[in-house]
Write a structure and sequence with these properties.
It contains nine helices and 28 strands. With about 525 residues, it is an alpha+beta fold. It folds into two domains: about 120 residues, Immunoglobulin-like (Sandwich), CATH 2.60.40.10; about 400 residues, Metallo-dependent phosphatases (Purple Acid Phosphatase, chain A, domain 2, 4-Layer Sandwich), CATH 3.60.21.10. The strands form seven sheets. Strands 14, 15, 16, 20, 21, 22, 23 and 25 form an eight-stranded mixed β-sheet that branches. Strand 21 and strand 22 form a beta hairpin. The radius of gyration is 22 Å and the shape is globular.
Length: about 525
């Protein structure tokens, strides 16, 4: 009997006993693939040069920890929920730059899915000649709330994976279920439709794990993540940066409520979602072990929540950071990232021996849609354009000061391309920032990229929600190679020692058939040469 037939036969009684709702969250047979996922619902791994961290969920609960076999070595799973549906595997002591064969086994040694391969990165001191990254944003959203159907998002990501990236960066908004924002909750998690869909309301005074909150979270978040990724990323290390919606709300500020910085319940929701569904950041010796979200009870944690590193030998170092968990409302001294994080970012930009040092913030550099939680003071005028003449309510001038400090550090890198890749704006965009405030960056302009959204719903584009498309902030000067395009898409970035090649892909829901996704080619290619 073939392995695939054996797996299907052994799991058939189990699957037959499951309720139909389970399959709404499943990606048991990823589209266009013969790989057999068996009892596995989703797999999302990350890696560095010596470790794997792999998140896995199953179509039914496991009462005994599963084992991950890594070239014959057994690693016991750690349960990441309270019901045994979600497990993680932390594998250390691996050789750098090597592909490993992985296999999931049940309590009696039975196969839980077909084996697959996953490779570690080169050592930080090595000199690889090429790195290919997949970059995208905004893959979340429940299709019952009119987001792009999960099968279509999966199809977009499968096309992106067909270019065989070495790793992927998913920059923010993996979940949309806003609970309190006056602007968005009424059409999101705070709506009667949303409460009926998951069968209840979250109780903010209760913990998440072990309460009805955990059950409701799975019903809200599961269909936004598990069928979108399924098992398609099992061999592609993926780095997840959190943005505002990953804290289960929109960044919004009015007299009744200011939704950020996140309160305790919002932090719980973000941590639990991350713990179950997608990997945290692995340690990096050049990143302080005590940054926010990287320590527990005063002790260094084995993973980090909000600030991470993708290091690929001496070829590339990506600095991955969320602006949401540490943002402050302190006026002229306010920040998006606290002082220890800013110091780390500037130190790496100044001292890294990598050929390319890339900023990957959750909030984009250069463009604004006039909303509150941005770097910029621009606000929408009565005439429908952006202006600096009207004070943006509750916006903090210190955020812009920090923005200018970081862009100065980017532009000041010697013999490096000052590249920033981000998401958030529901668009694809490319531009060069030559001035910010009074700072002249023209000798080494900051190249800013918005990587392309995967799941945006028709009413979610900036021009729909805010009645204005994203535009360069009036605080700076920018040369736009791609003015923000409100279509679904992604970016493929190729790094060699002397240059970066960016390839932008887009798909128009209104004018193109689904089948067009399978043959998407770049609509724009940009080649960035290292200075000097």
């Amino acid at each position: 009997m073939k392995r695939r037939d054996f797996l299907r036969a052994s799991t058939a009684p189990l699957l037959a006993a499951l309720p139909p709702a389970v399959f709404a969250q499943s990606s048991i047979t990823p589209m266009g693939s013969v790989w057999d996922a068996g009892q596995v619902r989703h797999i999302l791994p990350t890696a560095n040069h010596s470790d794997f961290l792999i998140k896995v969920s199953f179509v039914s609960s496991l009462n005994v920890p599963p084992r991950l076999m890594v070239d014959g070595r057994a690693v016991e799973g750690q349960m990441t929920d309270t019901q045994g549906e979600f497990w993680q595997f932390r594998v250390g002591g691996l050789s750098a730059g090597r592909a490993y064969t992985l296999a999931l086994k049940g309590s009696e040694g039975q196969s839980l899915c077909q084996p697959w391969d996953l490779a570690t990165f080169p050592t930080p001191a090595s000199t690889p000649d090429h790195l290919r990254l997949l970059l995208f944003t905004c893959a979340g959203g429940h299709e019952a709330m009119n987001f792009l159907p999960a099968v279509t998002r999966h199809r977009l990501l499968k096309r992106a994976l067909s270019f065989k990236p070495d790793a992927a960066v998913a920059n923010g908004d993996h979940v949309y279920w806003d609970l309190r924002s006056p602007l968005t909750a009424k059409n999101s998690g705070g709506s009667a439709q949303a409460k009926a869909l998951i069968g209840g309301s979250f109780e903010r005074s209760m913990p998440v794990f072990g309460t009805d909150n955990e059950h409701l979270l799975k019903k809200a978040a599961g269909p936004q993540i598990t069928p979108v990724y399924g098992t398609a990323f099992r061999s592609t290390p993926t780095f997840f940066i959190q943005d505002d919606h990953d804290y289960w709300d929109n960044d919004d500020a009015v007299d009744e409520i200011i939704t950020f910085p996140p309160d305790f319940f919002m932090r719980q929701m973000a941590r639990v979602t991350q713990s179950m569904y997608y990997p945290e950041f692995l340690p990096d010796t050049t990143r302080p072990f005590g940054l926010p979200g990287a320590a527990e009870m005063g002790r260094a944690s084995s993973v980090a929540e909000s600030f991470g590193t993708l290091r690929y030998g001496r070829l590339a170092e990506l600095l991955l950071y969320s602006v949401r968990p540490t943002m402050t409302l302190a006026g002229p001294s306010a920040v998006f990232v606290e002082d220890t994080v800013e110091a780390w970012l500037k130190q790496r930009m100044a001292d890294s021996d990598a050929a390319h040092v890339i900023n990957a913030p959750s909030n984009p550099h250069g463009w604004t849609a006039g909303k509150w939680g941005e770097w910029y003071p621009d606000v929408l005028s009565k005439e429908g354009g952006l202006t600096l003449d009207i004070k943006k309510p509750y916006w903090q001038e210190g955020w812009l000061k920090q923005h200018d400090r970081l862009l100065a550090a980017l532009s000041g890198m010697k013999c490096k391309i000052p590249l920033s890749v981000s998401g958030d704006l529901q668009a694809l965009a490319l531009g060069r920032i030559t001035r910010t405030g009074t700072l002249d960056l023209s000798k080494n302009p900051v190249v800013s990229v918005v990587t392309g959204p995967i799941g945006t719903r028709p009413t979610g584009w900036p021009s729909g929600l805010r009645k204005i498309s994203a535009q360069p902030s009036l605080h700076l000067s920018m040369n736009e190679a791609i003015a923000p395009i409100e279509q679904h898409g992604f970016t493929i970035a190729d790094f060699t020692n002397d240059k970066v090649i960016l390839k932008f892909f887009k798909w128009d829901l209104k004018t193109q058939p689904l089948e067009a996704i399978d043959t998407l080619e770049p609509f724009h290619t940009a080649e960035l040469q290292r200075p000097g």
